[in-house]
Specification:
Order of helices and strands: EEEHHH
Oligomer: single chain
Strand order of the largest sheet: 1-2-3
Distance between the termini: 32 Å
Radius of gyration: 17 Å
Number of domains: 2
Length: about 110
């Protein structure tokens, strides 16, 4: 299986063209994908395109959060005492906030 473009991915937009970009800046700068919204279209609005872009940009973070959550099956019986539990909770919170385009309090 081919590996995905390394994260983090970031969202930007060009007001002039209406294109919403998802880019990786890890090695140089290149687009992961472009999303378009159609002016005067009730189905694919600029808000929809931006929301989709934020969700797509969160994909690498969500993958890591899922991996961390899966690792929790090995957590002790009292997760409140386990550093892995709290680190996983923080990682999941950040990924969810990014997917929902909210400030995760980094």
């Amino acid at each position: 299986m081919t590996k995905h473009t390394p994260g983090p991915w970031e969202v930007d937009s060009d007001e002039r063209t209406g294109i919403v970009y998802i880019s990786s800046h890890l090695i140089g700068s290149h687009d992961v994908c472009d999303l378009y919204h159609v002016a005067d279209c009730e189905i694919i609005t600029k808000e929809n395109a931006m929301a989709n872009a934020h969700l797509i940009a969160a994909a690498p973070d969500l993958l890591e959060a899922c991996k961390a959550a899966a690792a929790c099956r090995f957590v002790a019986k009292h997760p409140e005492d386990n550093k892995v539990f709290w680190e996983t909770e923080r990682t999941l919170g950040k990924a969810i906030a990014k997917a929902e385009a909210k400030d995760a309090g980094n």
